[in-house]
Amino acid sequence: MHSKIEQEKLYGAHNYEPIPVVLTQGSGVLVWDEEKNVYIDMMSAYSAVSHGHCHPKLVKILQDQAEKLAVVSRAFYSNNLADFLQKICEVTGFEKALPMNSGAEGVETALKAARKWAYTKKGIAENKAEIIVCEGNFHGRTIAIIGMSSEAQYRDGFGPFPAGFKIIPYNDPSQLEQAITPNTAAFLVEPLQGEAGIIVPDAGYLAKCAEICRRHNVLLICDEIQTGMGRTGKFLASEHDNVKPDAVILGKALGGGLLPISVFLTKKEVMDVFTPGDHGSTFGGNPLAAAVGKAAIEVLFEENLIAHSKELGDYFLAALKKIKSPLIDEVRGKGLLIGLAINPSYYTAREICLRLLKKGVLTKETHHTVIRLAPPLIIKKEQIDQVVGIIKEVLTEAVIK
Ligand SMILES: *Cc1c(COP(=O)(O)O)cnc(C)c1O
């Protein structure tokens, strides 16, 4: 066993089970380990590295800003936060943005905004506001967020949890209609469930939910932390259904693969519930993050990465669907967010990931049976061909064994 792995196990908490490779360098779609072996990164840090590793323009902006001013807290104004907020609002069509760091903080911000909106604007009685979420959801790891999870392992041993959440089945608008009461503040949903195993709902699901929410004066909040920033072939995945949610949370790729940056976006009527002292974050919206976040959005457009994600995603999905193997249960996804479901009677998804690792392809299982294929959006067609070839090889060898 590798010494860095042993050392990390010795001094670190065992809250992850990483694929056994020690990475030391990255550039674009490629990463290298300590022995200088090269790998194609098909994980891109759960979509946080959509721009590719160490994108030169983003690194330059990070360096320049780090030499000028990095962190001031929100006790003062800084000269580039306004530009970042304006940019993200213009690109998404929202009126207001509130910057945070991790995705989970962005989700917590959304929950707080929805509740306060319910009390001050919708007229729900104090402490009665309900928020509806879906089975299989993943919105992060704070106590409130795991409290609304349907995943036993995420919750076990961490209660008690805050009240006020209701879980309904995903991909069934009639369940939403039935679950709404006069106390419902919001419906929080992923347009495509990532951590649940790349679950793509029926076309029109989100549009139906939006119509139901509008009719009941319930906020539709889309968690686009993983699906946003072009990952599924549109800037926001909710665009596939022509839906304009009342609020959206972005994170992951918003940090350009360099920093944790998240943002809660909504209309003025909702954002205005926050008054000074209601909410905050020491690092949220810091000058370094503002500079990198703005540039991360610009690079998506400059390099045409959103259309590229759609084109290569369609190409990749079609190529994977052509593979004939008893080990594949299903291939599904949108844009460059693809799940390869492995038949569990043969192998776990992790066993296949370990075989891919040996052939220079990095990825990670989700939920024991699904292999996530979500490369940086800058990936080239030839690299996809190479990965498809390696997947075929691995599946063939695995069958023979
Ligand atoms: C990753 C993720 C989060 C949590 O983001 P963190 O930065 O890990 O806190 C929330 N929602 C979705 C859909 C995610 O994929």
Notes on the protein architecture:
It is a single chain. The protein is an alpha/beta fold. The protein folds into two domains: 3-55 and 307-400, Aspartate Aminotransferase, domain 1; 56-302, 3-Layer(aba) Sandwich (Aspartate Aminotransferase, domain 2), CATH 3.40.640.10. The chain is built from 14 helices and 15 strands. The two termini are 25 Å apart. The mean pLDDT is 97. Pyridoxal-5'-phosphate is lined by residues 46, 102-104, 107, 138-140, 190, 194-195, 223, 225-226, 251-252.
Q: What is the CATH C-level name of the largest domain?
A: Alpha Beta
What is bound: which ligands? pyridoxal-5'-phosphate
The description of the largest β-sheet is: 7 strands, mixed
Strand order of the largest sheet: 4-10-9-8-7-5-6
The CATH superfamily of the largest domain appears as Type I PLP-dependent aspartate aminotransferase-like (Major domain)
